[in-house]
Each structure stands twice: as structure tokens, then as C-alpha cells.
Amino acid sequence: MRTARGALSAEEREAAAAEIDGPGTEEKDWRTARLPDRLPHLDLPEGPVVVVAAHPDDEVLGFGGTMAALVGAGISVHTICLTDGEASHGDGDGDGDAPARDTLAALRRRELAAALDELGPLHAPLHTGIPDTALDRHEDVATAAIAGLLSETGARLCLAPWDGDLHSDHEAAGRAARRACRATGTTMWSFPVWMWHWARPDDPRVPWRRAGVLPLTPVALGRKKAALARFTSQLEARGPGVPPVLPPEELAHHIRTFETVIR
Q: DSSP per residue over 51-112, as a string?
């Protein structure tokens, strides 16, 4: 069971990992579902906007095209990345792995900076340095950091990973953002990341009644694709016989002509 702080039990972590590691839903199944025909189309939101990521790349995967459109419309967009994603190439629990984790963390920060530059003239991201894969044990720190940025920027809208995404860090980021939005009176939308992998069209675990789509112009989609290409650590094999974190079939879920949010 989750504690009041939102921490996951060992059983919950194992079940969620099995969903994410299992065979995913193919993008052709999502195309057949014709989500843009079934879900309401949303207007570009007013700003300032704060986008929360659990790891470097979450914000681009889930909302990068709309971020590019917002910047192109002259709307102020701020980002906060709660971890550096240093565990993406392994569990990284041993002390001997610390140098490799530090190297990967630094690389992923550079990749994120380059990716955001592709989206447009964005503010430099705020990094909190919370340990990767342990965000659910540091939700109070994350909540305070998000609330601080929302207040500092006068944000009218906050975007964060969906708290039903089945990835522990994503869910913790979503819960922290929700608490921060309640404390600051900020409207919140969520974006799914791994949901497209484990869910299926009409999946009852997904709150489709609260979902909407934001169509992307060719320019915005092009900027998003260029930004995603900057995350080479996630797109290339992690070692001999070890597939990338984001193989082509997974990336296909995130280069559509629209983005989906849960309100």
C-alpha cells in the first residue's frame, strides 16, 4: 500500500515494472483508435506555463510540441526537472556505480539543455537533483520546489507527468505537482508518457473523459522531433545486447501530430 507520502511498496513497484517491461501496444493500434476524432481539441493555453519532468526528456516526450507552439506564440514557458535520470542505464544502487551515475547525470543535463534549445528560446531548466528512482521518497522536496517555481513565475498552468503512469517517479512527480498546484491555486494538466506503452485504446485505467488533444503544426512537430533527437543516451543501445530506453516503437507514440493531456 502507498503511505501518506505516496511511497510505493515492493509489490507495487514489481507490478508496475512488469507492465512497463512487458510487450507494449503498437502505435498502429493507437492510430486505429483515432483519438483526435474522439477527444475534444484544446486551445493553446495561456501562460506563464510551468512544465514538470521526473527525468530529462519527460517534458519533451509528453508536451514538447506544445511547448514549442507556446514559445512561438510568445508565451513564457518554464521547466523543472526533478531528477537527473542517472539510473536509466541500470539500477545504480551500488557505491561502485556512483561515477557512472554522475557521468550519465551530467550527460542528461546537457542533452536536456540542447533539446530545450531546439524547442525555442526557453528559460534554463531548474534542476532539483532528487535521486532517480527514489522520487516517491522525496515528494515533499519536489512539492516545495514546484510550488516555489509556480509562485516565482506567476504560472497560470502547470503540466506534469500523469500520476497514473505506472512509473514510480512519474507518479510521484504528478502527485507533487498536484499538491503544489493546490497550494498556489494553479491550474494543472497532466501528460502521459509510459501509458501509451502499457495501456490500450478504451483502457478503463485511463480517465479518457478528462482527456483532450492539442493539435501540433508541422513546425511545432518538427521542433519536437529535433528536440527528441538530442537525447542520444536514451535512443542508443545501453550496451551490447541491451536495447535503448526509447526504441523506435516507443518513440513512435511521441511523434504524433497531436499531444494528449488529462485535465
A: EEESSTTHHHHHHHHHHHHHHHTT--EEEEEEE--TTTTS---SGGGHHHHHHHHHHHHHHH
Confidence at residue 7, expressed as pLDDT on a 0 to 100 scale:
52
For the CA atoms of 67, 159, 58, 213, what is the dihedral angle to 10 degrees?
-70
HSE-CB of 238 using CA atoms within 13 angstroms: 15
Question: Distance between CA atoms of 8 and 11, rounded to whole angstroms?
Answer: 8
Query: 227 near 118, Cβ under 8 Å?
Result: yes
Query: At how many degrees (to 10) do helices 58-72 and 98-119 cross?
Result: 20
Give pLDDT, residue 8. Answer: 52
pLDDT tens for 38-53 read 999 999 999 999 999 9
The model's pTM is 0.92
- 190, three cell numbers: 497532466
Residue 152, C-beta contacts closer than 8 angstroms, at least 6 positions apart: none
**Which pLDDT score, from 0 to 100, does residue 5 have?**
37
**Residue 142 contacts residue 135 (beta carbons within 8 Å):** yes
Is the domain covering 10-262 a CATH 3.60.15.10 domain? Answer: no
pLDDT of residue 2: 32
Q: What size, in residues, is the chain? A: 263
H or E element, residue 130: strand 126-130
